[in-house]
Amino acid sequence: MLLTPGWEANSNEPQYAQLYAYLKKEIAEGKLPENTRLPSVRKLADLLGLSTTPVEMAYQQLLAEGFITSRPRSGYYVEHLPEPEAKPLASQSAAAAVIERPLLRDSRQYEYDFHMSRNDFSLFPYVEWRRLYNQTLVLEQQDDLFFGDPQGEPGLRKQIARYLHQYRGVDCSPNQVVVGSDQFGMLSLLSLILKPEYPQIAVENPGYLLFARTFTHHGFEVKPVPLEYDGIDIGELHRSGARLAVVSPSHQYPRGMIMPISKRLQLLDWAKTVDGYILEDDYDGEFRYHGRPIPSLQGLLPKANVIYMGSFAQVVAPALCIWYMVLPESLLDRYYALVSETLLEQSASRLHQRTLEAFMKKGLLEKHLRKMRSLYRKKHDESIRAVHEHFGDRAVLYGKDAGFHLLLRVDSPYTEQEMRELAIQAKVRISPASFTWIQPPAETHKEFFLGFAGIPLEKIEPGVRALAAAWLH
């Protein structure tokens, strides 16, 4: 393979990012066809006059997104991409078995707290947030204390659309953004919009139970679909008969796999074939620690049948109670009709919305995100190192390189319940992952959420050591 004259380095963006974007475009447009062998890292670096580091980073990002594959002792090859109708990439019931669930509000005090989704607030910009909030809460703006726009403050929706385009590759206008105070409320709105035409919904198994439970309570028939090594099983999705599906493609919950580009295109093709919709849960898409964040499914093809859902709970703080979804244009009329019929009012604090708008407009959100990603990367890497040191070959980690937790599979002589009790005795909070199954498989493993975001960095190693001592002896 020879590079065409379309790529040359400039100083506006990291070299690896430029090379990654160029190669991705060449593959998507078919200029680098399936099974094309890419030059070795060293050869391409020599050809372009670069060090090997940016070339290796570009290849690793393409590998993570499924554009290329690595063949042992052979090199990197271009993967097969399905042929959707729009070829170019856009620029920018299942009632569960009774399983004991973790203590969601555990009042015990732990020396080592590996909570599965807790934030670290040590770097929260208290001074800046307080100043912006005080500027919002002034006598001259008394109207801000009244109900705001049911869809969300226009200025905030504009900022969210810009942010999503820049950081998650989402293609939308502010008119497509809907703001709410919590995920259950947003899903309930969707249920009311979709139920008349789409009475069934497919969900990942295992997966995030809030989706399955919420849609069940709204009268949907929930169809659990198993996972493959790279995400939801598309064949089983077709066979389910559902025309709605919930997926978390950028970092599957709980198993952490990243859906490659080929399967993403198959999923989009499924939605078009059945005239249905995909609900994309992008709960922690901003937090990828090695390589660039994986772009959203929503922005992959123009006008895709995707409902995108995210929040500022992980990026800033859950206490803001600001969630959002991006509706396809084809669903906007149904949403506006529902607002009119129900006299719906906004559930998210208008003051928090206006403060967040100012926070984003001043560039403070991007600054805070960079700090948090750096901090969580250190904790992520330390967690992996500590598990390797203290568990050795008695444990396997899944879902690395992104998110707030690792999935820890342990070879232990104890039962799961015994392991939970032993962890408590060792003053360690850690939750089993068994509750995420809607339909448990015949054979299950002892797997636990090792949440690393909320625990202090210096406590990770002794906490993992305490777990190993409790579980392996």
UniProtKB/TrEMBL annotation:
Keyword list, A-Z: Aminotransferase, DNA-binding, Pyridoxal phosphate, Transcription, Transcription regulation, Transferase
GO molecular function: DNA binding; DNA-binding transcription factor activity; pyridoxal phosphate binding; transaminase activity
CDD domains: AAT_like, WHTH_GntR
Required cofactor names: pyridoxal 5'-phosphate
Keyword Transcription regulation set for record: yes
HTH gntR-type domain boundaries: 13-81
Domain of life: Bacteria
Pfam family, one: Aminotran_1_2
PANTHER family the UniProt entry points to: HTH-TYPE TRANSCRIPTIONAL REGULATORY PROTEIN GABR (PTHR46577:SF1)
Similarity-based family: In the C-terminal section; belongs to the class-I pyridoxal-phosphate-dependent aminotransferase family.
Protein name: PLP-dependent aminotransferase family protein
